[in-house]
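Weekly sync, protein design subgroup
Attendees: M.S., D.O., the rotation student, P.L. (late)

Item 1: inverse folding check
M.S. brought a backbone from last month's batch and wanted to see whether the design step gives back something sensible before we order anything. D.O. pointed out we never logged the input encoding, so this time it goes straight into the notes. Structure tokens as presented (471 positions):
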């Protein structure tokens, strides 16, 4: 056999292997004979019959494109072939017997004869349905994220406005508002862990009550999961009740008790009762604050039910009924019960946040938050290094004297661990300020305090001061 024939066979074999590996199907439009030649590989991908059929001036080729895409794709292909001699397009496959619903990517080159006249178009097709599906899902998720972020921002704005109208000092506003923000963050953390499919009432109760008055709070009830909307509403309600109990009610004394109990209702939904005992003698308030307004007018509506607040002398009692619309099935992914967190009732004492003379590095990618940290730490007496917004910026600042650092765990998608490792090697203490949920310990396994966002800057200052005192 002549060597040229052998080389041709080897080249054809290599081409066949390459097409199979790339999962491509080839076709040819023979313009001189006006025939469309479809390979078995293309037929396997698209469901189009293999073989040779009349091309009808190219109409047969374009007939395989979904009617809604056909005109635009045909114009794009013809324009590209005329200007560049090749094209690359994406389109949906036209419906037909034996054809699946597919997205295809097609590339082709115009072949010319010795006289320069177009004589054929040779091309390949590839199934890109999976990629298109992922893109659609990603766009849907981004739209959903945009919707949720706007809802959260609107809720935060409303909380700020309502809190401001009912407080008489900046200090009181900051304390109350910070507590409500933490409640929202706690509910969102639980929902995120469950992929926004629902949050358990028991977990919401643990998040709000687990860190206050140890031994004085108890909660009990069947496993029930709430919709994101209901979970946020109940979390805020429990926060208001717990805050009032700590300030004025049963949890303001060491002998007081709070018992939270929920049960399923026979007609669907659930009932929840909050009972305080052992505290100071209770009297009905003469004026309702935002907490009471939130409970009576917002919480019940958000849970498709109602809330009743009673003020017997023995202790506040709240009865909440919720409709079936507030309850969801158990999510596929259920997080562990949250680690108890302490309630925020008062700003940190200035003496606990004395940073006079301390050189503190700030590494935080959120510019506004970094500015707030810089102001707060400077007010506490610190000499601020930075802030560094990027990993490279932070690494460049490590060659100067540093007494302590505040590190955001994630810097625009990059881990802050390289900075933490250098600081740890030098014996410089640091605190992590992060928006990520609890994972059982500090990022990277470091023995370092963690402050969850959102936080009060005074908490960060106090944490840094505590690290410096412990050296």
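Designed sequence read out in the meeting:
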């Amino acid at each position: 056999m002549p060597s040229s024939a052998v080389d041709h066979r080897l080249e054809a074999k290599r081409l066949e292997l390459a097409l199979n590996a790339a999962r491509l199907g080839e076709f040819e439009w023979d313009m001189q004979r006006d025939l469309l030649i479809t390979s078995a590989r293309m037929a396997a991908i698209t469901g189009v019959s293999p073989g040779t059929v009349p091309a009808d001036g190219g109409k047969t080729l374009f007939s395989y494109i979904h009617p809604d895409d056909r005109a635009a794709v045909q114009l794009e292909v013809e324009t590209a072939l005329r200007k560049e001699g090749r094209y690359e397009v994406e389109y949906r496959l036209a419906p037909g017997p034996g054809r699946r619903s597919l997205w295809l990517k097609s590339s082709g080159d115009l072949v010319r004869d010795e006289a320069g006249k177009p004589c054929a178009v040779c091309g390949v097709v590839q199934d890109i349905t999976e990629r298109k599906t992922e893109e659609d899902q990603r766009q849907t998720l981004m739209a959903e994220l945009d919707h949720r972020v706007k809802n959260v921002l609107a809720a935060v704005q409303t909380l700020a406005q309502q809190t401001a109208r009912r407080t008489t000092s900046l200090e009181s506003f900051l304390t109350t508002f910070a507590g409500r923000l933490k409640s929202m963050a706690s509910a969102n953390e639980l929902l995120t862990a469950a992929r926004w499919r629902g949050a358990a009432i028991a977990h919401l109760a643990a998040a709000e009550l687990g860190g206050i008055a140890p031994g004085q709070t108890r909660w009990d009830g069947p496993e029930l999961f709430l919709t994101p909307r209901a979970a946020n509403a109940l979390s805020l309600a429990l926060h208001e009740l717990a805050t009032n109990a700590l300030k004025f009610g049963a949890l303001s004394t060491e002998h007081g008790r709070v018992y939270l109990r929920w049960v399923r209702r026979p007609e669907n939904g659930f009932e929840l009762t909050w009972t305080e005992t052992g505290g100071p003698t209770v009297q009905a308030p003469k004026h309702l604050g935002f907490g009471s307004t939130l409970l009576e007018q917002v919480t019940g509506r958000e849970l498709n039910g109602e809330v009743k607040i009673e003020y017997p002398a023995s202790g506040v009692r709240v009865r909440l009924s919720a409709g079936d619309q507030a309850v969801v099935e158990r999510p596929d992914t259920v997080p562990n019960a949250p680690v108890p967190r302490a309630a925020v009732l008062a700003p940190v004492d200035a003496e606990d946040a004395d940073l006079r003379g301390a050189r503190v590095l700030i590494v935080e990618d959120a510019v506004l938050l970094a500015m707030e940290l810089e102001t707060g730490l400077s007010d506490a007496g610190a000499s601020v290094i930075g802030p560094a917004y990027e990993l490279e910026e932070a690494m460049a600042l490590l060659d100067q004297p540093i007494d302590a650092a505040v590190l955001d765990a994630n810097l625009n998608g990059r881990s802050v661990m390289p900075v933490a490792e250098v600081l740890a090697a030098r014996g410089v203490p640091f605190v992590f300020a992060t928006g990520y949920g609890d994972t059982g310990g500090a990022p990277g396994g470091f023995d370092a305090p963690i402050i969850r966002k959102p936080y009060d800057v005074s908490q960060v200052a106090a944490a840094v001061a505590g690290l410096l005192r412990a050296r």
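Discussion: The radius of gyration is 33 Å. The chain has 13 helices and 21 strands.
Action: P.L. to compare against the previous round before Friday.
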